[in-house]
C-alpha cells in the first residue's frame, strides 16, 4: 500500500511538471511569432531583442522537457544511475544560452546607442509588451508551482522571468517613446541584459559544479568529516567524497579505520543513522578498515531514490 501511494504521488508530480512545461512552450511559441512581427513592423529594439531571446526560451522549454523525460530512463548495466543527470545538463545548457543571449543584446544595444536614433511607434510596443508580460508571468507561475527546487525547472523558470523583465522593459520603453525619448529603448535593453546575466551566472555556476561533481554547498565536507570523527569507535576518516547528480540528493563514500575486534556492522549502522538523521544523506558506501589492515565493505542505499 505504501509503495502504491509513493508511486502515485511521484506520477502525479511528474504530470504536473510536464503539463507546466507543455503549457509554457505553447504559450511562448505563439507569442514569439506575434512579438517578432510587431518588432519588425515598429522597428523597436526592445521588442526585436526580446523576440530573439524568446527563440532561445522556446528552445529552452523544449530542451527542459526532453531532458526531464530522459532523466526518468531506467538504470542499465552501462548506466547504473540511468540518466538522472540529464536535467542538470539541461539546466546548464539553458543557463549558457541565456548568457549568450545577454551578450547579443548588449552588442545590439550598444550599436543602437552609437547610431542615429530612429523614431519608433510607441503603442504597438506597449501593447505587445503587456501581452508578453501576462504570458511570461503565467508560465513562470505554473513552473514555480510544479517543482521550484528542480534545477531543470529552475532553468526554464529563469528564462520565463527573464522574458517577463523583457516585457516590462518593452512597456517602459514604449512609454518613453510616446514622449519622444527613443534612447530609452537601448538603455532599458542594457539594464535587462545585466539583470538576466547575473541570474544566469548563478545557475551556470551551480549546475557546472554538479556536473564537475563538486561537494554540494548544502553538505559542507568539513562538517560531515567532524561528525564522523565524533562517533564512538572511529579512529580515523579518509577518502571522504560527497557529490550529487541532480542538485538534490547527496551521495557519499568514505573509508573508516576502527580498532581491531570492533563490531563493524554496529559502527556502520551508527554511521548510517547519523548521516541520514543529521545530514539527510541516504545513499552511501561505507568501508571499514581494522588496524591490522583487513577491511569490510557495507553499501547502504536508499530504499527509493527521490524522484525529480
Itemize the secondary structure elements and their pairings.
Blueprint: H1 2-42, H2 45-71, H3 86-114, H4 122-147, H5 151-178, H6 184-211, H7 221-229, E1 236-244, E2 250-258, H8 264-279, E3 283-290, E4 295-300
Parallel strand pairs: 2-3
Antiparallel strand pairs: 1-2, 3-4
Structure description:
- The protein folds into two domains: 210 residues, Cation efflux protein transmembrane domain (Alpha-lytic protease prodomain-like); 80 residues, 2-Layer Sandwich (Alpha-Beta Plaits), CATH 3.30.70.1350.
- 66% of the residues lie in helices and 10% in strands.
- The protein has eight helices and four strands; from the N terminus they run αααααααββαββ.
- α2 runs antiparallel to α3, α2 packs antiparallel against α5 and α5 runs antiparallel to α6.
- It is elongated, with a radius of gyration of 25 Å.
- The N terminus and C terminus are likely disordered.
Question: Key features?
Answer:
Alpha-lytic protease prodomain-like, 66% helix, disordered N terminus, 308 residues, 2 domains, four-stranded mixed β-sheet, Alpha-Beta Plaits, disordered C terminus
Helix content: 55-70%
CATH C-level name of the largest domain: Mainly Alpha
Q: What amount of the residues lies in strands?
A: 5-15%
Quote the CATH topology of the largest domain. Answer: Alpha-lytic protease prodomain-like
Distance between the termini: 22 Å
Number of strands: 4
Short account of what is shown:
With 308 residues, the chain is of the alpha+beta class. Helix content is 66%, strand content 10%.
